[in-house]
Specification:
Elements lengths: L1 H6 L3 H6 L4 H26 L5 H29 L1
Helix pairs in contact: 3-4
Length: 81
């Protein structure tokens, strides 16, 4: 457990969500989506071609993904009550 805390600062948040497996699964899906975005960003930045517009588009996709994550969390919190 100490190793997971050193790997990611989100481990404390994940520990709070351990009781609800469905929410924990959704959280992992969100993390996977962000990892994919980061991988795409790294790939585009290493390319020899000019992908500035692609990186800008990726930024808007990232913002949209984060917005959906917030909505998802808000909705799941609402139904917990």
């Amino acid at each position: 457990e100490s190793s997971s805390q050193t790997v990611c600062d989100l481990s404390d948040d994940e520990n709070q969500q351990e009781n609800d497996e469905d929410e924990h699964d959704e959280e992992m899906t969100n993390q996977q989506a962000l990892k994919i975005i980061i991988q795409i960003r790294k790939h585009l930045s290493k390319s020899k071609h000019n992908f500035e517009s692609s990186i800008d588009s990726l930024g808007s996709i990232e913002n949209e993904t984060l917005g959906l994550m917030v909505k998802q969390k808000t909705i799941s919190d609402y139904f917990k009550k």
